[in-house]
């Protein structure tokens, strides 16, 4: 995926992304960090096709995916958008459906997959994530870590070619972060490309193959995690690491 000269704002006075550029390589686990208001979550929502853009272009698999065509109009290739999955901070599970029903809803409704086939795939995913016994449980009966693992399984049900994670550990107790981290690593080890926004530095260090630091709507620093998090080159990155994460470069 390639993101070139991406601009996004809300009205004439609020500019969030100001010419952001990122080239993502196959199989990468790209972690995006930066100060609040720096455009990280907005970037994910744009890549997911949930937001209009004001300028720039995103290509996916060498094809035009999202592009600003004229003021107030954004081109989005819906077919490509279906190849991208997103996991949100607050799970977004349907509370009136049990775990199995949450997983099979989209494949059955969007793709017309037979309920029996979707259920078999869903149960295999739940078993893989240690959640097989929770298939008939409702979201209110699950821990935060279990809900997030279910949300990840649900995203995988549509066989995405890219997964986006928006602050997926920030609502979890520290001991539950490891549960989710292990699931994401398991998926990553099978070659799934990922773009992950997080405020959790330890999570970033454990999961990233590459880290991008964004501030002021642009990429300030980009490199391997040990470099960006351990020995940042840019003063703005060093200030952020020291102040927010208390890690000395």
UniProtKB/TrEMBL annotation:
In terms of SUPFAM superfamilies, this protein maps to: P-loop containing nucleoside triphosphate hydrolases (SSF52540)
Do the record's keywords include Nucleotidyltransferase?
no
Q: Which residues form the ABC transporter domain?
A: 1-241
- Identify the InterPro entries for this entry: AAA+_ATPase, ABC_ATPase_HisP-typ, ABC_transporter-like_ATP-bd, ABC_transporter-like_CS, MetN_ABC_transporter-like, P-loop_NTPase
Q: What is its main location?
A: membrane
The record describes its membrane topology as: Peripheral membrane protein
Q: Which Pfam families match?
A: ABC_tran
**Localized where?**
Cell membrane
List the molecular function annotations (GO) for this entry.
ATP binding
Q: Please give the SMART domains that the UniProt record associates with this protein.
A: AAA
Gene3D superfamilies in alphabetical order: P-loop containing nucleotide triphosphate hydrolases
Give the record's keywords alphabetically: Amino-acid transport, ATP-binding, Cell membrane, Membrane, Nucleotide-binding, Transport
Identify its protein family.
Answer: Belongs to the ABC transporter superfamily.
Q: What is this protein called?
A: Amino acid ABC transporter ATP-binding protein
Q: Organism classification, top ranks?
A: Bacteria, Pseudomonadati, Pseudomonadota, Alphaproteobacteria, Geminicoccales
């Amino acid at each position: 995926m390639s993101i070139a000269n991406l601009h996004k704002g809300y009205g004439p006075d609020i500019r969030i992304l100001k010419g952001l550029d990122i080239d993502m390589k196959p199989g990468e686990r790209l972690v995006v960090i930066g100060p609040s208001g720096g455009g990280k979550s907005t970037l994910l929502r744009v890549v997911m096709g949930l937001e209009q853009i004001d300028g720039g272009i995103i290509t996916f698999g060498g094809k035009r995916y999202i592009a600003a065509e004229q003021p107030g109009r954004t081109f989005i290739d819906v077919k490509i958008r279906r190849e991208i999955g997103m996991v949100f901070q607050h799970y977004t599970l349907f509370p009136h459906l049990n775990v199995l029903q949450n997983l099979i809803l989209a494949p059955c409704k969007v793709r017309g997959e037979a309920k029996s086939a979707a259920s078999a795939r869903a149960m295999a995913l739940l078993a893989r994530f240690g959640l097989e016994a929770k298939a008939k449980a409702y979201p209110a009966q699950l821990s935060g870590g279990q809900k997030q693992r279910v949300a990840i399984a649900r995203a995988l049900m549509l066989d995405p070619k890219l997964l986006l994670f928006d602050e997926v550990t920030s609502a979890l107790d520290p001991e539950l972060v490891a549960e989710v981290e292990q699931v994401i690593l398991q998926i990553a080890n099978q070659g799934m490309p990922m773009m992950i926004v997080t405020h959790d530095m330890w999570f970033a260090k454990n999961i990233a193959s590459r880290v991008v630091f964004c501030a002021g709507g642009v990429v300030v620093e980009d490199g391997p995690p040990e470099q960006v998090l351990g020995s940042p080159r840019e003063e703005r990155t060093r200030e952020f690491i020291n102040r927010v994460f208390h890690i000395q470069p």
